Automatic annotation (TrEMBL):
It comes from Povalibacter uvarum. It is found in: Cell outer membrane. This is OOP family OmpA-OmpF porin. GO terms for cellular component: cell outer membrane; pore complex. CDD domains: OmpA_C-like. Residues 229-338 form the OmpA-like domain. The lineage of its organism: Bacteria, Pseudomonadati, Pseudomonadota, Gammaproteobacteria, Steroidobacterales. Belongs to the outer membrane OOP (TC 1.B.6) superfamily. OmpA family.
Length: 349
């Protein structure tokens, strides 16, 4: 019936946006408009020389969606015009028919998914028809049944686009030329009060708290090693000599100092009272250094050795040659060492 049909639609910036998921079709009032192509069936008499029975159509509408399945819609529609030319004895007669009116429809929908639905509609159309020519003019208001079907796309919570076919049966009357009207249109609707429901925030994941570790017992301190007793010995020298007479008594002390790096040693040199005191002081220092050198030769660090010469300041008690022999000496003393809290502490020499 419609050999060639040009469908025009209402444009909106909102239609170009990416669709948002609508989880349902809640009740809401809506308002919109549509435009499309119209074809009049039987618009012209059989003897018409020419017949233009197509035109564009536009409508505005408003309604209320009660639930996802049922809506009621009121519309005002301009059905355009139809033109025909009829023969006369000596001329032709041009006749124009114009149609507009109001529609009231019930729409029954079937949601396909969250954004698409199919629907059918039925109701009545109150037509206001007018036919005019150079010879006559007629106007008629008539009720006509209406039926249609379409597909709607809820591309935003507030916006819906639709493509629809509508059939109006017998619009007009006997005076204006009763005709059927077939319409294909594109429409855009705005639904009031619709908002995208924010996605529920995921519940916070609270990590399971492990019980606190049991208190760590303080490490048991090792038993203190037996303390090292103080060590004292003497090394003797010949008259006016800084060469020790015997060193065997130092070997156990050197061994102990090698095993226990905490130990220290004090080496004090002395001289008898023979000769000048200044000379005796220097001699006592050389004697102390000679003994200290034996410790260093065994690998004992210098910072663990304290060396001093004291001349004839501590002459041995006694008389004669025995006193002098006992005064020509070096006192070697290693302080006692106590092991406390796992550490060794040496008394200062």
């Amino acid at each position: 019936m419609l050999a060639s049909l040009c469908v025009c639609g209402l444009a909106s910036n909102a239609a170009a946006r990416e669709p948002e998921a609508v989880t349902q079709y809640p009740s809401a009032a809506y308002f919109g408009g549509e435009a499309g192509a119209l074809y009049y069936d039987n618009a012209c008499e059989a003897n018409a020389l020419s017949c233009d029975d197509t035109d564009v159509t536009a409508a505005i509408f408003g309604g209320y969606r009660f639930n996802p399945y049922l809506a009621l819609e009121l519309s005002y529609r301009d059905l355009g015009e139809a033109h025909a030319t009829y023969p006369r004895l000596t001329s032709t007669l041009d006749v124009t028919g114009q149609m507009r009116g109001y529609g009231l429809d019930v729409q029954v929908s079937l949601p396909i998914n969250d954004t698409w639905l199919a629907y059918v509609r039925g109701g009545a159309f109150y037509s206001q028809a007018e036919t005019r020519s150079s010879e006559f003019q007629a106007e008629e208001d008539e009720w006509a049944p209406a039926a249609g079907a379409g597909i709607a796309w809820q591309f935003r919570p507030n916006w819906q686009a639709r493509i629809q076919y509508l059939f109006l049966s017998g619009v007009g009357g006997a005076d204006t030329g009763e005709s059927n009207a077939e319409i294909v249109s594109l429409g855009l609707s705005y639904f009031f009060g619709q908002h995208t429901k924010p996605a529920p925030e995921p519940a916070a994941i609270v990590p399971a708290t492990s019980p606190p570790p049991p208190p760590t017992a303080a490490p048991e301190l090792p038993l203190c090693a037996p303390p090292l007793p103080a060590w004292t010995t003497q090394i003797y020298f010949a008259f006016n000599s800084d060469e020790p007479l015997a060193m065997e008594s130092l070997i156990p002390l050197m061994d102990r100092m090698q095993r226990h790096p905490q130990t220290t040693v004090r080496i004090a040199g002395f001289a008898d009272s023979s000769g000048p005191s200044g000379y005796n002081l220097a001699l006592s220092q050389r004697r102390a250094l000679a003994v200290a050198e034996r410790f260093r030769a065994r690998g004992i660090e210098s910072n663990r050795i304290v060396v001093g010469g004291f001349g004839e300041s501590e002459v041995d008690t006694g008389t004669g040659s025995v006193r002098d022999a006992l005064s020509r000496r070096v006192n070697v003393t290693s302080p006692a060492v106590r092991f406390e809290n796992g550490q060794c502490r040496s008394e200062k020499p």
